[in-house]
Every structure is written in C-alpha cells, then in structure tokens.
C-alpha cells in the first residue's frame, strides 16, 4: 500500500512538474514579443494601407497562404517573419498600420516593415508613400507608448528588452537607388566602394537608434545575391549570367555589414546584434538549386518576359503550377520554400551563417534568464 501511495505521489510530482514546465514554456512564448523592421522581404501588409505601387494585396500573391488570399506579403505563402514567429512559438505580429493591432494583440509585437524602403531616405522615391526607416522607428516609439498605457511603462520596457527583433534592409539602396537608372544621383555622387561605406555608416546610426529605443536581441540580415534575381537577369544579364555589377555590390556590402555589427557589439559590450549571412544562405540554393529540391533559381514562378523577370506579378502573369520547385516567387522575392530554408538557417545555422550565434542558441540562453 505504501509503495503504491509513494508511486502515486511520484506520479503527481512528475505531472505537476510537467505542468509547471509547460506553463513556463507557454509564458516564455507569450512573454517574447517579436518586432520586424525593413522592406518588402519582411513587409506583412503595411503598404496595403498606403497609396503606393509597392503592394502585394492582389492575386496571385498569397496563393499558398493558409487563407489562399493576398495579404500584402511579397510571397506565394509565408514570409520570413511568419516562419520565425512559428519557431519562437508565437503568432505573427500584425502590420503596425492594421487597425486590428490593439489590446492583447499589441503584446505579440508589431511589424513596421514597408516594401520599397532602404537605409537611405531617398531610396524608393518612385514608390512615393512608404514607411521609411526613420518613420518605422518613430512608430516603434509610438508603439511603446501604447503598450505602456496598456500594461504600465515598466512592463512595456521589459517587453521590448526581452523581445526578438528582425531587421531586413539594404537591398533597395542598390536596386531602387544606386542602380535604379543609369547615372543616378547617388552613382554620380559616389563610386561603388564609397557608396557602400556611406550605407554602412548610415546603417550603424539606425542600429544605435534601435538600441537606444530598448532593443536587445536583433537579427540583422544582409542582402541576397542581388545580381542573380530574375529582375536583374532580365534587365542586365549578359550571356545568361548574373549581373556582375550588382554581385560586386553585394560582395562589398555584406562583409562590411558583418564587420560593423561586430564592432557595434564590442562598443556596447554585449551581443545585441546578430549578423544573419543571408547572402550565403541564398547563394547556396541559387548556385545549386537541385540540391535543395528546386528545378530553377533563375526563372521566377510569377511574371513575364525573360526569366519572368519583367514587370509585376499579376493575375495576367505567367504562373507556375508548383511553387516549391522555384527559388523565386516573383522577380525579386523568394518563394515560401526558399524562405523556409533561410528561416531554418537563422534558427540552427553554423557560424558561417549566423554570427555570433543562431536563433536556437539565443532562445536557449534567454530561457535561463
């Protein structure tokens, strides 16, 4: 009788511990807000609320999203913020301009990203009404005031300091600024190496502003192999190769971004900023698509013209039947399957991909705090 009683009490002890652990994990997931800043690679629909041509709110965008509707994501399905949200056990944060972002939804975080923007304020001027980086950071301040009113200033500060942040910006400063037109204003002002140095110095200021606004865990992505996207193959390719000039830009920019992040962390005295080498991640499947189950890394699934790389992806465009066989969904943006590979590298990638640590290591370290 005594042994069955002790077995029962052991069972309840183990069950109780399991429940406590489960609750702790749920609380951890609930406690960790997620904020997203940047451009169309991470915009989840802010531009739907703006008068701009940089929008993805009509078919066939979203064809593979759970609702099969266009949401404003520049993807056939989930984008990278969605996939990171799944990894941290959270729902995707709503676009900041979405009227549904209020009450409890605010505690999940917010997505401030806006298609067409760059590090520089003069990037994407042709899109007119977009949320430039300085404005995204202003909205982040506004968000903190709103959350402070909801849960108190102290808790709001803690929510931000414990949050995960994703920052994806920089590609448009090349494709929608320096190389937008021949003899662009910026290309007359700077040769390419000096322009890259200027971008890095401006980006550093953005990182420090984010830090001063309370950010303490920030994933910073580089640019992909910009010269190999279908749009650039269609417009600039010679003999079917990637655009040498844009590849040179990516090769100059990405290592300097990584060095700057290491230097900023050293100055702060903590690994606040994490460099995600998305250039290498993309390059893996752009250079060897079949190894990842793709049939092509050159032709977009949705588009028209050479490589389906000209103009916008619309209901009138060519559309591939199986999106999982294509690295690129449209002329510039990865397919959901490509996004999943990138998100997995962010989660578990080695130091070749994630410096100084990957997201699973961050989550393990932070769960001990």
From TrEMBL:
CDD domains: SGNH_plant_lipase_like. Gene3D superfamilies: SGNH hydrolase (3.40.50.1110). Belongs to the 'GDSL' lipolytic enzyme family. This is GDSL-LIKE LIPASE/ACYLHYDROLASE. InterPro entries: GDSL, GDSL_Est/Lipase, SGNH_hydro_sf, SGNH_plant_lipase-like. Keywords: Hydrolase, Lipid degradation, Lipid metabolism, Signal. The keyword Nucleotide-binding does not apply. It comes from the Eukaryota. Residues 1-31 form the signal peptide. One of its GO terms (biological process) is lipid catabolic process. It comes from Salix purpurea. One of its GO terms (molecular function) is hydrolase activity, acting on ester bonds. Pfam families: Lipase_GDSL.
